[in-house]
Amino acid sequence: MMKQVIFHETGLPENVLKLEESAIPEPKAHELRIKVSARNINPSDIMFIQGMYGITPKLPSSAGFEAVGIVDKSDESGTVPEGSKVIFTAIGTWKEYVCVAANTVIPVPEQMPDEIACQAFINPMTAFGMLESSGLKKGDWVLVTAGASAYGKLVIQMAKSKGIKIACTVRREEQKELLTNLGADLVVNTEKEKLQKVIMEKTGEGVAVVFDAVGGMMGARALASLKSGGKLMAFGALSLENMPVNSGLMIFNNLKIEGFWLTTWIESLSNDERRKAFKIVLGHLMQQDVKVDIEATFPLDSFKEALEAYQKPGRNGKIILK
């Protein structure tokens, strides 16, 4: 038997998640069975539990999309040897064992700790993929909303290494120094400052691209911070509100809005391109030239305490379930 955190109905995680026991799953011929060693909590996990994500849960469902673990049972072809440590994504990783297709896992470099490996896929690959897709060149300005998020901190570091100028938004004054030290050229506290005004003053004409994780009014203000011919790439809706779009602004400033979803981008790559992308991202993390922050670690059966830590205002690092 194995432990798993599951929900039988959608709702707030603290109300609907339960720890239950179930049979250890048997992998299909093309699948591996992985004994999960660590998972991180992402905003997408919380939205999925609430039924507010792009993937609808098939109830009852476990939570979590991203994890690291040891291959406990290989596929029939022996593609990945038993005992190998791998990074993987699946629908429902908050359980002790998960079965996934053998051709979808990523081998973990030997020296990489579980706490880093379990967050090496979604946020780092999203940051890398958006920079690759953006058309941004050295010297261009990008505006990142929710700059102090795990994704925001990664994209600041990756953009900096390419010579791209980074502006980002925060809601706490103490986060300004943190992001400036990471390499941000401009940090705007939107609780105290008017975003468009500061952006126009500091950049002269506005930013070339916006990476927007928030939507709602923040997304609208970010859109208004673009220079003529600029582009907003929407990849999240942390505000849980749709962005009101100013049609006149779009028309006369020749602006574009496009969506970015990691799954779609990865599927658009060839096998060689995918391997190269993973190699670059894991290389960044291994060499520590791109760092990830860890706030606290909890065992799986302490998921309620982990969720409380996740929801703590001003949290600067990831919450890990081991």
From TrEMBL:
This is Enoyl reductase (ER) domain-containing protein. It comes from Indibacter alkaliphilus (strain CCUG 57479 / KCTC 22604 / LW1). One of its GO terms (molecular function) is NADPH binding. It comes from the Bacteria. It holds the Pfam family ADH_N. Keywords: NADP, Oxidoreductase. Residues 11-321 form the Enoyl reductase (ER) domain. SUPFAM superfamilies: GroES-like, NAD(P)-binding Rossmann-fold domains.
